[in-house]
Amino acid sequence: MAALDLFGRRWSLRVVWELHEGALGFRALRRCCGDMSSSVLRQRLVELNEARLVHQTPEGHYALTTLGRQAHTALRPLVDWSATWANELAEHSSEHPSEHSSDHGAAAADAPDIP
Length: 115
Hints:
GO terms for molecular function: DNA binding. Residues 1-90 form the HTH hxlR-type domain. By secondary structure, this protein is mostly helical. The chain has two domains: 2-69, Winged helix-like DNA-binding domain superfamily/Winged helix DNA-binding domain (Arc Repressor Mutant, subunit A), CATH 1.10.10.10; 76-110, no CATH class. It has six helices and two strands. A two-stranded antiparallel ribbon has the order 1-2.
């Protein structure tokens, strides 16, 4: 349950996702995360560091640890499922435009475009 608590915090998953291709400096990571506030990013980096998912390189960049890379790999099926879910929502809304609720459409539209 500790993983759910950690990943349930806003931006935690995004930070892990953005670091999966390599280390990033604080400013670059912040830009990748939609310019989230500096204080929130610092807090998430502290939490992810304490959880041994992220570490700071000697150059001052942030990178995934082995555990962090394993977490990213474990999250891939969820990303795949979310793409299927978004497609299903889009198909349903195009088949039944009068039944389309703004809540469902917003969820699909606000989903991050994750490779």
